[in-house]
Amino acid sequence: MESYLLDWANLLLRWVHVITAIAWVGSSFYFVFLDSSLTVPADDKLRAEGATGELWAVHGGGFYHPVKYAVAPPRLPEKLHWFFWESYSTWMSGFALFTVTYLWNAGTYLVDKSLMDWSPATAVAVALAFLVVFWLLYDAICRVFTGRRNGEAVVGLLVLALVCVAAWLACHWFAGRAAFLLVGAMIATSMSASVFFVIIPGQKKVVQAIAAGQPVDPIHGQRGKQRSVHNTYFTLPVLFAMLSNHYGFLYGHPRNWLVLIVMMFAGAAIRQFFVLRHGWKLGRNRHPAGYALAGVAVIVATLAWLAPQATGTARLAAGQADYASVQKVLEQRCYLCHGQQVQMKNVRLDSPQALKQHAQAVYQQAVVAKTMPLNNATHITEDERGLIGRWFVAGARVD
């Protein structure tokens, strides 16, 4: 019953998380587009009021005319919409999903004893520390170096180095699948923390100053803008890290930390293309196609790097393996999760017909990607993987 209820919790939390993430990412992308597409207001009255940009747009049969005040509007409207629940609800649903899936079963999903032989409680504590420590270091970098000479460049390089170190540590301390997700959750936590600790408090101070008739300190807008820009570049790397746990050939690679870093870099480069494209359309910068090409080139190079080696298949075909031999391996290594008592992911392997049905998946997960058994909890050997491979290459016969 516990497994059944956890599956339902996983499904519902995943559903909520995707919905709220769409809302947050969508609003983030929209405001980056809006900022990059604003032009100087044509109306003298708007400029006199302090408006710094405007945009005319058409959508859904209507015309829209958003206007931006870089510091403060001449007066506060009666109704002011705050963009923060998209961020908070995304983080809360994501953390709940992370808890149900990984922290609740830390011994299975977080711990890989071939990397770190620590207790589930220790693994949970270190995983949570990743979320907190990364945010503290990221926030400190932004506060210390922003405003200095070449400050933004220094901040960018230091944050990049921080992400690389975190990715290396996560992949050397945790099971690969959990490590990728943890790095994504770590960055996403900082994104939401920026909203909670920097952007929204700064906006509230601006509103309070306007309401009190006091001058507005522009630093709050500058800090909020900086964190919002960082968040938009974090978005595609985070999405990749979150989705990658479905693909064992990524997190199961011996240099999985490098795979994660280069693919997140590709995502950030592609995002840069879309950010600068808005300015290019207004003649503000050169065409940013180079960023998109760089990102695609990194993805293609990674695809070629991770491609299965044909020589491995040829080597497998050199030997012979019958069903009886494979059955002994599966009984010892796989039936615990895919047998009569438990069928994880609705996969059962303890009969000839069931094994024949899932032969391709068994070969892919146990031999090619080597992601099953999960974290090699049942200690399958390379010789046993080779035995399964030879059986599959020979035709996966079960008679």
UniProtKB/TrEMBL annotation:
Pfam family of the protein (one): Urate_ox_N
Domain Urate oxidase N-terminal span(s) in chain numbering: 3-302
Membrane-spanning segments: 12-33, 83-104, 124-141, 153-175, 181-200, 233-251, 257-276, 288-307
Keywords: Membrane, Transmembrane, Transmembrane helix
InterPro entries: Urate_ox_N
Protein name per Swiss-Prot or TrEMBL: Urate hydroxylase PuuD
